[in-house]
């Protein structure tokens, strides 16, 4: 069978009136996802590319054919709709056993809000029904950076969030750590039950900042219900505007900040995008202060709502778990 983007060989017995059981092998010589997706109506362009190959045996079971075998994926580019993160150069293997994936391994690059190498592995059951999907997946992200300019969510209480993010960003942009990555690693394990993925150990470490997340994502509609904690060594707000790298960054994006109305919020935390008269250099070296913050993550994962919350407003058990992740 030869179609645009598809090359298959099929051998075996598709039907036999003398036997109830039939079986045939499907040799996937190559599937080019970009060419194949171009034939599908309403499929977003440039959202999927790469190739796969493998061998699948289809065995009849209760008047249905169940697949068994493995598929290799090569140089996959996948851009989920309305997502802050997409995946590039993904290579992997899926071992198929009926409607289950007995083994899934992928590694490649995360792009967008997070720029870093990423790998994932696990097992999944009931792939034919999102309502009954279950399994376990582990994710490992290597050294990389968080690109705040690619954040597509909603900042509730913006002056508070901007103050926190500004302080964290400034701690990473000072002259001493400018060449260092924003994080060393992100790791986490997800247990999936009835289409809902739960984690209680998603954590990011590296440099002056640590963060952790506990909560759920509903894979059926991509809605988040999670708590995030961040612990960082930061410069106090009154010192942010004195850091050359922060001044340079704010000035570089002055037009965008004004359009978004963020220039006024940044002024509240000591960062001014306006040209300032030359001042005598401050001989005092800014000092960092440890802070601990908690945020509520809700809404669609592609456009999440981020709201700062007080520690006393959450349960003691959740607070202890979050602190353990960032200690």
What key attributes describe this structure?
327 residues, alpha+beta, 17-stranded mixed β-sheet, 18% helix, 48% strand, elongated
Task: Show the helix and strand layout.
Blueprint: E1 2-3, E2 6-13, E3 23-32, H1 33-37, E4 48-61, E5 64-78, E6 85-97, E7 100-112, E8 114-125, E9 134-141, E10 145-146, E11 154-155, H2 158-173, E12 185-193, E13 196-205, E14 209-218, E15 223-234, H3 237-240, H4 244-252, H5 254-260, H6 262-268, E16 289-300, E17 305-309, H7 316-326
Parallel strand pairs: 11-17
Antiparallel strand pairs: 1-2, 2-3, 3-4, 4-5, 5-6, 6-7, 7-8, 8-9, 8-10, 9-12, 12-13, 13-14, 14-15, 15-16, 16-17
> How helix-rich are the residues, as a percent range?
10-25%
As an assembly, this protein is single chain
Spans of 5+ residues with little confidence (pLDDT < 50)? 158-181
Shape: elongated
- Tell me the fraction of residues in β-strands, as a range: over 45%
Structural classification: alpha+beta
Describe this structure in words.
- This protein is α+β, with helices and mostly antiparallel strands and 327 residues long.
- Helix content is 18%, strand content 48%.
- The protein contains 7 helices and 17 strands.
- It has a 17-stranded mixed beta sheet that branches.
- A hairpin with a 2-residue loop joins strand 4 (48-61) and strand 5 (64-78).
- It is elongated, with a radius of gyration of 25 Å.
Short description:
The chain has helices at residues 33-37, 158-173, 237-240, 244-252, 254-260, 262-268, 316-326, and strands at 2-3, 6-13, 23-32, 48-61, 64-78, 85-97, 100-112, 114-125, 134-141, 145-146, 154-155, 185-193, 196-205, 209-218, 223-234, 289-300, 305-309.
């Amino acid at each position: 069978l030869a179609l645009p983007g598809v090359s298959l060989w099929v051998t075996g017995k598709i039907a036999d009136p003398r036997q109830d059981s039939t079986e045939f092998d499907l040799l996937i010589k190559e599937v080019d996802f970009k060419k194949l997706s171009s034939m599908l109506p309403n499929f977003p362009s440039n959202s999927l590319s790469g190739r796969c190959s493998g061998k699948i045996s289809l065995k009849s079971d209760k008047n249905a054919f169940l697949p068994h075998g493995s598929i290799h994926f090569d140089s996959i580019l996948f851009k989920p709709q309305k997502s802050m993160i997409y995946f590039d150069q993904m290579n992997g293997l899926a071992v198929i056993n009926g409607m289950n994936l007995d083994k899934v391994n992928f590694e490649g690059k995360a792009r967008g809000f997070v720029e870093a190498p990423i790998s994932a592995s696990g097992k999944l059951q009931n792939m034919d029904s999102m309502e009954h999907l279950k399994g376990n997946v582990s994710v490992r992200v290597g050294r990389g950076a968080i690109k705040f300019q690619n954040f597509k969510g909603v900042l509730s209480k913006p002056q508070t969030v901007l103050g926190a993010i500004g302080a964290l960003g400034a701690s990473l942009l000072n002259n001493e750590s400018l060449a260092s990555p924003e994080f060393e690693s992100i790791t986490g394990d997800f247990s999936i039950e009835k289409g809902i993925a739960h984690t209680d150990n998603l954590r990011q470490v590296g440099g002056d900042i640590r963060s952790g997340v506990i909560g759920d994502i509903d894979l059926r509609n991509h809605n988040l219900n999670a708590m995030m904690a961040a612990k960082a060594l930061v410069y106090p707000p009154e010192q942010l505007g004195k850091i050359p790298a922060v001044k340079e960054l704010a000035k570089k994006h002055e037009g965008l900040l004004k359009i978004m109305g963020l220039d006024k919020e940044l002024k509240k935390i000591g960062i001014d995008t306006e040209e300032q008269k030359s001042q005598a250099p401050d001989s005092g070296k800014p000092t960092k202060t440890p802070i601990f913050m908690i945020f509520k993550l809700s809404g669609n994962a592609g456009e999440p709502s981020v709201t700062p919350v007080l520690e006393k407003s959450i349960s003691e058990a959740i607070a202890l778990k979050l602190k353990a992740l960032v200690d």
